[in-house]
Amino acid sequence: MEFAEGVPCWVDAMLPDVEGGKRFYGELFGWTFDDGAGAEYGNYTQAFLAGEPVAALAPKPDGRMPTSWTVYLATSDAAALAARIKGAGGQMIMDPMPVGPFGTTGLAADPEGAVFGLWQAGTHVGFGVQREPGAFGWTEVYARAKETVDPFYEGVFGYGGQDLDDAGEDFRIWSPAGARPGPETAIGGRALMGGSFPAEMPPHFLNYFVVADCDAAAATARHLGGRVRDEPQDTPYGRICTLVDNQGAAFAVLQEPGQM
Length: 260
Prior knowledge:
The protein is α+β, with helices and mostly antiparallel strands and 260 residues long. Helix content is 17%, strand content 40%. A hairpin with a 5-residue loop joins strand 7 and strand 8.
């Protein structure tokens, strides 16, 4: 696969216990795992679905770091993207750095503090498969002020935006630069954090994995020691729910309309 500028190309989770994460996600999504990239690369462990790379798990190097999933947005020039991010009011948490022959990575935050990664591909391009059961399907940023966040992402990545009137909330979808904006080309979106979100919850990205059965995935997550943060519900784009794994990392699952 090749990924256009700003398109989600990878996700990983920073966990206190990678072996525990392998058991949880292996049963939930049917993933298998490699033996890890070794201490030189932070014992980074890739996950596979039918032999194709779909995600990674890594041990937290510092207990103060959040237990969370991070989405990586593709770029052809990580240094230039970092400059655009800073120029638009964001910040670089980790400046672009090479990861052996695999590529160049960085970690950024938008003007409200929502964190996302950058990936300039080397030998590792990103997802080998997506938008099918067990693989990544969607990402969205939860923001407080759309007047701040929308211009940031649309300016930095050139996204074309479209507001959705049928989402039941103030929701905007983004398509890559050059694509006609709309659900057919959208690669992510922006939701607003309203009164149902705790005041102390910071702006953040939520990453979705496709499943064949949303309710069964929620039940499996509970069985494995995770919890359901938002119960399964139907939307115009499928049945969704938000889950938290057995170590505290939040993510969502999506059962697409054709599977309902």
